[in-house]
Amino acid sequence: MSRGKLFESLPGSELNENVGGLADEVPPVPKPVPLEYAEEEQCRLYYYSFPFSNGKINKTATIRHQWALSAIPFELPTTSPSHSMSLARYIYGCSTGAISYRPALGKAAKIDYLAKIDAETLIAQGIAHPPQQIKCCVDTRSVDEIMQNTDDKDPVKLFRMPRGWFAQEPRFVQRANAETEDDGWLLTYVFDESQLNVQGECSQDATMREI
Fold this sequence. Notes:
Blueprint: E1 2-9, E2 44-53, E3 56-57, E4 65-70, E5 75-78, E6 90-95, E7 113-118, H1 119-128, E8 137-139, H2 143-147, E9 156-160, E10 165-167, E11 171-174, E12 184-187, E13 190-192
Parallel strand pairs: 4-8
Antiparallel strand pairs: 1-2, 2-3, 2-4, 5-6, 6-7, 7-9, 10-13, 11-12
């Protein structure tokens, strides 16, 4: 028996979350990252699976599965409210056409893609054909490769903002009497940078009506 968890893996940060009692004790001193796992920092949606024994966590065992579901940059994950803290199939979030969020750390990241991840399908693929732990991904395609795919059943779907437009953290709003988990709308705030002046700032005489 095992329990799976999805986390956003953010570079330069420490995960301090109680996962089924794993954080009840003082954490061990971090060890250097082995060279086999060394790579450029990424911000991705990761899957972790913890083995259980008789319904209890085996604290001496290692993590069973730990790999990213997709190679695309992924930030600000959210699910349908009706599936929060439960078995959710779809994870929504932000992505970028850049290789990673790393160049944007410490300043505002420009989000030009919204993403929909079919976590259930990708987890099943990863368990059937496990990628290298920690470093590798179930779906290794880039943003451009995913955008070229027209398959409606693609487990990774992207919506690109118009050129010069950038989005913020999305929220899923479920349709009344929804028939499926993803029956609803994904809402986000979008800004058109063409409204900025040559200094990259709003004009002093700008109004919300004009914006």
